[in-house]
């Protein structure tokens, strides 16, 4: 577009209405989150007759070249540069803030991915769901049936996605945040989880089954979390296993036993008739059983049997060890 002449520009200055001066000590820009200067705003000098120059915008439709500095003084230029009136300082600050936010989000996403936060949350929630079903009076055979149906459904999806690349891509897009990289082209870990829970529910008593699922749900999560954080400080005891992780499983196993046998079960005595362990029927005290549960959790988590999935081996081994030990200590 053509530049306006100097006379036209001067006339526009005289005819334009007086704008509120930006140099207003009573106005706090920082206190006004909605304060912005128009993208096309051009600041000029206007004399109000009092000898004090103020800054105002050119009226809409008027233009001035980027290198035309005849309309404002050197002092105003310094003020413009200092205040960032042309947006340079503001844009730089905004870009810096944006970069910082992006870096923070990237680090957060990396942390979530490395620590498998969604997967661990699912593990932990399953333990609480198990306890909730117990408080409602569900029997093992009822839960096995429902879990079996879920297992058939998940396995069918796996067969479909592993033989249909397009469906696998869509499947991973939806639930990929719960999967590990090696599960993209192999069996989903959920299937092993379901199978492990079904095994212990089928052969063990109600209390042993619940404890086995808790050791899988909570202790495996604790072992993974502690192992990833402190595993480099301790010796490795198996493939992908560290002493630090086993210690995390040990502590959580003790907590799970106290929480279930010591706190929750006494509140629902009507559902405890099938329990294998009771304080009256066993030589094992609650404290001894808690320590035993911790050792079993650490052992089951640390053992690597033919590189089978932990979701299968932990509940199965935990159920076997707990069942055998409690029976040996029964009166």
UniProtKB/TrEMBL annotation:
GO cellular component terms given for this protein: endoplasmic reticulum membrane
Matches recorded under InterPro entries: Dgk1-like (IPR037997)
Skewed-composition ranges (Polar residues): 1-19
Segments crossing the lipid bilayer: 121-137, 187-204, 210-231, 243-261, 281-299
UniProt KW keywords: Membrane, Transmembrane, Transmembrane helix
Presence of the UniProt keyword Membrane in the record: yes
Annotated Acidic residues bias: 59-69
Single GO term (MF): ATP-dependent diacylglycerol kinase activity
Example GO BP: phosphatidic acid biosynthetic process
Disordered: annotated span: 1-74
UniProt feature coiled coil, ranges: none
UniProt name for this protein: Phosphatidate cytidylyltransferase
Lineage: Eukaryota, Fungi, Dikarya, Ascomycota, Saccharomycotina
């Amino acid at each position: 577009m053509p530049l306006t002449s100097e006379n036209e520009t001067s006339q526009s200055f005289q005819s334009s209405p007086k704008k509120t001066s930006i140099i207003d000590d009573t106005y706090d820009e920082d206190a006004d989150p909605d304060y912005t200067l128009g993208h096309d705003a051009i600041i000029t000098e206007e004399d109000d007759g009092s000898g004090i120059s103020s800054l105002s915008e050119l009226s809409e439709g008027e233009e001035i070249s980027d290198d035309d500095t005849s309309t404002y003084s050197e002092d105003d230029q310094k003020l413009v540069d200092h205040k960032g009136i042309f947006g340079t300082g503001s844009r730089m600050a905004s870009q810096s803030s944006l970069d910082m936010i992006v870096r923070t989000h990237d680090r957060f996403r990396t942390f979530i991915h490395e620590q498998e936060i969604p997967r661990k949350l699912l593990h932990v929630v399953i333990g609480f769901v198990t306890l909730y079903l117990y408080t409602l009076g569900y029997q093992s055979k009822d839960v096995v049936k429902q879990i079996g149906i879920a297992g058939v459904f998940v396995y069918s999806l796996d067969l479909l996605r592993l033989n249909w690349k397009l469906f696998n891509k869509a499947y991973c897009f939806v639930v990929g945040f719960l999967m590990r990289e090696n599960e993209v082209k192999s069996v989903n870990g959920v299937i092993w989880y379901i199978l492990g829970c079904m095994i212990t529910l089928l052969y063990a008593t109600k209390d042993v089954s619940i404890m086995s699922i808790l050791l899988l749900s909570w202790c495996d999560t604790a072992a993974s979390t502690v192992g990833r954080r402190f595993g480099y400080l301790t010796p490795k005891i198996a493939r992908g296993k560290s002493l630090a992780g086993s210690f995390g499983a040990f502590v959580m196993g003790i907590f799970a036993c106290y929480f279930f046998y010591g706190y929750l079960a006494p509140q629902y005595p009507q559902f405890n008739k099938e329990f294998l362990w009771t304080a009256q029927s066993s030589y094992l005290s609650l404290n001894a059983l808690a320590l035993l549960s911790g050792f079993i959790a650490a052992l089951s988590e640390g053992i690597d049997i033919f590189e089978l999935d932990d979701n299968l081996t932990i509940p199965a081994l935990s159920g076997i060890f707990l069942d055998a030990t409690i029976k040996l200590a029964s009166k």
